[in-house]
Design a protein that fits this description.
- The chain is α+β, with helices and mostly antiparallel strands and 697 residues long.
- It is 56% helix and 6% strand.
- A five-stranded mixed beta sheet has the order 4-5-6-10-7, sandwiched between helices. The protein has a three-stranded antiparallel beta sheet with strand order 1-3-2. A two-stranded antiparallel sheet has the order 8-9.
- A hairpin with a 5-residue loop joins strand 8 and strand 9 (455-456).
- The protein is globular, with a radius of gyration of 25 Å.
Length: 697
């Protein structure tokens, strides 16, 4: 899940617990049904234009800023009440975000470098505007006056009142004027650092240049797709799909080491400096606001609640997985010794290569054979079929001449029973220079009830760089790619099937340590025979994935999963320790933590943490959330599994009790409403230990 800092509402509302109504869908659902087009209505387009010129983009932003300023002025001039102050401010923030989101999003996807630069510049200005508005003392006093009236409010309104007031109070209004100015400067600087960090990764264009020895072992079709220079040497782009292919298959250890270092160092020394500065500023920010450190500040409104709870959770996982991880490491080292007698260590650039070879030998499973059954068009079509059946929705492709690049596809979402329009999503799956290079879903327009009672239909976009087609074949996906697509598509649905009344609570605007749960739950689907029958079809004859091949995939599903969990625990612990200690050498400290948890020694010159975008992109002191939310994901999935997986009945309850609410009520309440009981960690821990049941072929 990806968020852009400038895309959020001017103040990101906190996620404090508050009781909500027991309705399956709130008033927003009724408003949306009333305003919906009839079944069979003409296809709709969202009112978004991604083909604006640079001057038009700048004009659009200036207009959005002027509208926000006018709205704030109107709030200050009106008598204080919930409707004229808090609700009006929420609406103004939502309108501002709706205007700014598409502009800033172009910085991630536009094929035109000049447009990307303009979008990035707008993002910086928008971030500064967000901080400035959040520090508006007159607005804060007006909200205090509105709260003091003590109006009787509906649960969602009371939650919005409490959260808005809390955010302003925690924004520094208990500080002196001098301290508030410093707080404002720190927040603005952090926004700038975050944007610069991401751009240094995205804009880095590098190649690994190798001769015939360097491409030995790579699949023939992939080798044939590579560009060769006048000297006959191969030029391999240093990006996620190419580096993954190279590290799995290239026979040359020296070439693998070179690729690993190039990929992990995309952020360069610049990003190490930016990260170090950000860590210090985050600690200063937290201490200005009265917290011991940044993790304490971040976690107070998340499901975990405290750094102590996170550390205890990660330690419990480490204890559960440690022995499995050691066995995994020993297995790979033993295999390497058969190839290189006397080898004493599996290095970072060895692990994927020897793991792949051991996996193929142990399970007679060749990933290149698996890929032949997953052409990208079949995967996309099959994924949509499954989601439509499970969630009770219909998708319809809508030609959109205003999309940001050729090949971008737009889809309309409607309710399958009523035909009412729900929202839209874009798919952008083709690699190109300057594009965000990691699979991600971006919320662009948030759902909300407008002043006239109609519902603003949400819009999201999924970005991925799937492999380029090999000569004579379509783009083919690994099963891991299929799982990733299914996961990110889950974020699209989470973002667009919302019925929350307010944009600040809509869709994926939930606690960071819950936001991955819906998509992680759906990853399980791609290991089920009935689902794979929809997703697979051999590229040349359309035949389904053979049972024998599927049986091998299932047998190998948990291969090296001990090391996988150890790596994730290491990343989460590294994130917490960096934010707690703020070391001078961020790369060295992070590498030492990863070595402790994975047993893989540090590689001189490896500065992976400078390309670890999560730390600066919204997951700072929160990377543990991927593991934390998986506890809930596996618990939710147990209900789908018990009902046969593709279950419209369970899907309807999941849509109504999890997706529709967003954070309009506490996430724990939504979980209990779906589960009918308190959440349990047993399904997750069973998977971590490796003793859980697996689906049969």
């Amino acid at each position: 899940m990806k968020k852009i800092s400038a895309l959020a509402a001017v103040i990101a509302l906190a996620l404090s617990p508050l009781a909500a109504s027991a309705q399956v869908l709130g008033p927003a659902g009724e408003a949306a049904v009333a305003a919906a087009p009839a079944v069979g209505a003409a296809a709709s387009l969202p009112s978004l234009n991604f083909t604006l010129t640079q001057p038009q983009m700048r004009d659009a932003y200036r207009g959005a800023q002027a509208n926000l300023n006018a709205a704030v002025a109107g709030i200050l001039a009106a008598p204080a009440s919930f409707a004229s102050t808090v609700k009006a401010y929420e609406a103004a923030s939502a309108e501002y975000s709706r205007a700014v989101n598409p502009l800033v999003f172009l910085g991630e996807v536009s094929p035109d470098p000049a447009v990307r630069r303009t979008a990035q510049a707008i993002g910086k200005v928008a971030d500064r505007k967000s901080v400035e508005t959040a520090m508006n003392e007159a607005l804060y006093r007006k909200i205090e006056d509105a709260a003091a009236r003590g109006e009787a409010l509906e649960p969602a309104d009371a939650r919005l009142m409490a959260d808005t007031l809390k955010n302003f109070r925690e924004g520094g209004f208990a500080l002196s004027a001098e301290q508030r100015e410093r707080l404002k400067a720190v927040q603005q600087k952090l926004n700038t650092l975050s944007g610069d960090f991401a751009r240094n990764i995205t804009d880095k264009k590098d190649e690994l240049v190798v001769g015939e020895d360097g491409v030995s072992g790579l699949p023939a079709g992939y080798r044939a797709s590579l560009t060769r220079g006048a000297d006959g040497r191969y030029r391999i782009p240093v990006d996620e799909p190419n580096s993954a292919m190279f590290l799995r298959y290239a026979d040359s250890a020296d070439a693998r080491r070179a690729m690993m270092l190039k990929f992990n160092n995309r952020g360069g020394e610049r990003n190490l400096a930016l990260l170090h500065e950000a860590l210090g500023l985050r600690r200063e920010l937290a201490r200005l606001l009265g917290f011991a450190g940044y993790p304490e500040m971040v976690l107070k409104d998340r499901m975990a609640g405290s750094p102590q709870a996170v550390i205890a959770f990660l330690t419990r996982l480490k204890d559960a997985v440690l022995e499995r991880a050691r066995r995994d490491s020993a297995d790979v080292l033993e295999f390497k010794r058969r190839v290189e007698p006397g080898a004493t260590q599996v290095y970072a650039w060895d692990r994927q290569y020897y793991s792949r070879r051991l996996r193929e030998e142990r399970y007679a499973l060749d990933q290149e054979t698996v890929k032949q059954y997953f052409p990208v068009d079949r995967v996309v079509e099959g994924t949509m079929k499954v989601y439509q059946r499970v969630l009770g929705v219909s998708f319809r492709e809508v030609p959109d001449p205003r999309a940001w690049a050729p090949g971008v596809r737009l889809f309309e979402i409607s309710d399958a029973k009523s035909g009412r329009l729900i929202g839209h999503f874009y798919l952008d799956l083709t690699p190109r220079p300057g594009k965000h290079d990691h699979p991600a879903a971006f919320p662009i327009v948030s759902g909300r009830v407008r002043d006239d009672g109609s519902y603003q239909t949400p819009v999201s976009a999924m970005i991925a760089d799937f492999p380029q087609p090999e000569p004579g074949k379509p783009s083919l996906l690994s099963h891991g790619d299929v799982e990733t697509f299914f996961h990110e598509f889950g974020h699209l649905m989470h973002g667009t099937l919302t019925q929350a009344r307010y944009a600040s609570y809509a869709g994926t605007s939930v606690a960071r340590d819950f936001v991955e749960a819906p998509s992680q739950m759906l990853e399980n689907f791609v290991w089920e025979r009935a689902v794979l029958d929809e997703l697979s079809g051999r590229w040349d004859d359309g035949s389904r994935l053979p049972d024998a091949l599927f049986a091998k995939m299932l047998a190998a599903r948990d291969f090296q999963s001990g090391m996988m969990y150890a790596g994730q625990i290491g990343l989460a612990m590294g994130d917490m320790i960096l934010h707690t200690t703020v070391p001078d050498d961020v790369s060295g400290a992070f590498n030492r933590i990863m070595e402790e948890y994975t047993g893989v020694p540090q590689t001189p010159g490896n500065n992976f943490v400078g390309s670890f975008g999560h730390l600066m992109g919204g997951y700072g002191a929160g990377y543990y959330g991927y593991l934390w939310s998986k506890v809930f994901a596996q618990d939710i999935y147990s209900f789908f599994k018990a009902a046969g997986v593709i279950s419209p009945e369970v899907g309807a309850r999941y849509r109504a009790q999890i997706l529709a609410w967003g954070s309009e009520r506490p996430e724990a309440d939504s979980l209990r409403a779906f589960l009918g009981r308190e959440p349990s960690a047993e399904a997750f821990m069973s998977g971590v230990r490796g003793d859980g049941p697996r689906p049969a072929p």
